[in-house]
Design brief:
The chain is built from five helices and twelve strands. By secondary structure, it is of the alpha+beta class.
């Protein structure tokens, strides 16, 4: 596997661009993961600050030591670090922007969850509607974005856990779209650091889908 792209680095953290289909953390039966690949690439241990699903691409924060990991985990939990996601979804939301404020189940418990959203673009193709949506987490529940969008009948394309399986199968067969369309797109660091937000380009599979919808869409 190619080296992981480092987007930002200081004495405490390394911010990387995580590829699609790479687990964040190693474990039994996992050959490659962010922490193991960084250790191999840099010759030093990487400490995880937060996680992205294996199928979610994009910006991920790692720390250089346990103290820094604890500090940055706290900064993210306190919303001093803002994570912005983009998702390509089936369907359309009723509002152009707002907050999804619906409880979700996590490990057998029902928990409060809030996700801020803004619809960036809508498309129509193959008698289906699609949306490109920007999202920010106001709470940090497992699979929160995926669950919230599914609850709003706007599931993420190629989400094989919470998505629309029939439509996913159609897009894969007709257009070759088979990777989950969720990207950790931008990270805004604490204001006192005076560092511009870190933002990435869409990964290839996401960009190709956007271009396809933009080309064929008749919205």
């Amino acid at each position: 596997m190619n080296s992981l792209e480092i987007l930002f680095e200081n004495d405490e953290i390394r911010i990387i661009n995580k590829p699609y289909n790479l687990p964040t953390q190693g474990g039994q039966g996992i050959k490659n993961s962010v922490d193991s690949l960084l250790e191999e690439q840099l010759g030093c241990k990487a400490y995880l600050v937060h996680r992205l699903d294996k199928e979610t691409s994009g910006i991920l924060v790692t720390a250089k030591n346990p103290k820094a990991a604890q500090k940055w985990t706290g900064l993210i939990a306190a919303k001093n670090v803002k994570k912005t996601y983009h998702a390509l979804c089936f369907g359309k939301l009723n509002q152009k922007e707002g907050i999804i404020n619906e409880s979700i189940s996590e490990k057998g418990c029902v928990k409060e969850a809030r996700t801020k959203f803004k619809v960036l673009q809508t498309y129509s193709m193959d008698d289906m509607d699609f949306s490109l949506i920007e999202l920010e987490l106001e709470t940090g529940r497992m699979h929160q974005i995926r669950k919230h969008l599914a609850q709003k009948n706007c599931p993420i394309i190629a989400d094989d856990k919470y998505g629309d399986f029939k439509k996913n199968k159609f897009l894969q067969k007709e257009h070759g779209i088979k990777k989950m369309m969720l990207v950790s797109k931008k990270l805004t660091l604490p204001s006192q650091m005076n560092i511009k937000p870190i933002e990435i380009q869409y990964p290839l599979h996401f960009q190709e889908a956007v271009e396809l919808f933009s080309k064929i869409s008749y919205n």
